[in-house]
Amino acid sequence: MERKSNNVTPIAICTWAFSNASKQAGEALERNAAALDAVIIGVAVEEANLKNTTVGKGGTPDREGNVTLDACVMAPNGDCGAVACVENITHVAALARKVMENTPHFMLAGKGAEEFAYANGFKKENLLTETATQQWKEWLKTSEYKPIINIENHDTIGMLAIDAQGDIAGACSTSGLSYKMKGRVGDSPIIGSGLFLDNDVGGAVGTGMGEEILKTVGSFLIVELMRQGYSPQKACEEAVHRVVTKNPDHTNFQVAYIAMNKAGEIGSYCIHSGFAMMKYQDGKNETITSPSFLK
Ligand code: SD4
Predict the structure, then answer these.
(1) N or C: which end of the chain has fewer CB atoms below 10 A?
(2) Is 156 among the catalytic positions?
(3) Cα-to-centroid distance, 282 and ligand 1 (Å)
(4) Which of 52, 55, 2, 46 is nearest to 23 (CA)?
(5) Per-residue pLDDT at 150
(6) So what's the pLDDT on residue 261?
(7) Residues 134-138, mean pLDDT to the nearest whole number
(8) Among the options 156, 174, 207, 216, which is catalytic?
(9) What is the rounded distance in angstroms from the CA atom of residue 214 to the CA atom of residue 93?
(10) CB 151 within 8 A of CB 58
């Protein structure tokens, strides 16, 4: 499929080996979907995946047993929307898009976001599965709070797409850190941290310890570095180095980024090995292992 503005065919990339997500988004792009539609389609795959304990329905709850979700989206024209700490709604990236399109605001949180969802036709669902309940009850026995690096080899889904028109959009969706404090919100719904893009330059998404991504405004940093001429790979490396040099405790948490520029070049980097990304282009869906700061 030819891309109109230059010679890059449509691409969908996402965090972790969420192969079905990248495939669904990539195939949508091949059917000429707009980049924003494609990333919502891709992210929705993991939001509905009960086996994924870090995104959407089936996500791990906070320490009081509530599953609370965070998400944001960003459109090629720079518009963005977000929801934070939302309960009972599975497809929070689509909800973030509704906030962007149907309200004068950027973000809705908690009950307000949930009520807005029902008003816009989203259905109420119990997000806490039996498996997640059992695991939470197990956790309660010690209540030891220690975020797990590369939790079960998946985490937040962050996705970027370039469509046939050459436009870039992105989405990010998560249940956040397992057994977080009630009300805790991470980087994933924050534009500039969990996700940022500039349609003239490229985009980036982050996953891992949200507090560290927020402190260094990681996705914005990567896009600005690409604007200055860094490759997506070098920009991701610089953003991880920024975290590592600011925090000597980095051996105890993961931060990972993926990025894509306007020319369709991609990159990824993380603190701890074990992170991977997906790339779908020209009918090929591949898992790419990310280089890491710690070997
Ligand atoms: C967060 N970066 O909420 C996200 C996702 C995450 O385990 O860490 N999930 O901090």
Answers:
(1) C
(2) yes
(3) 31
(4) 46
(5) 61
(6) 98
(7) 93
(8) 156
(9) 19
(10) no
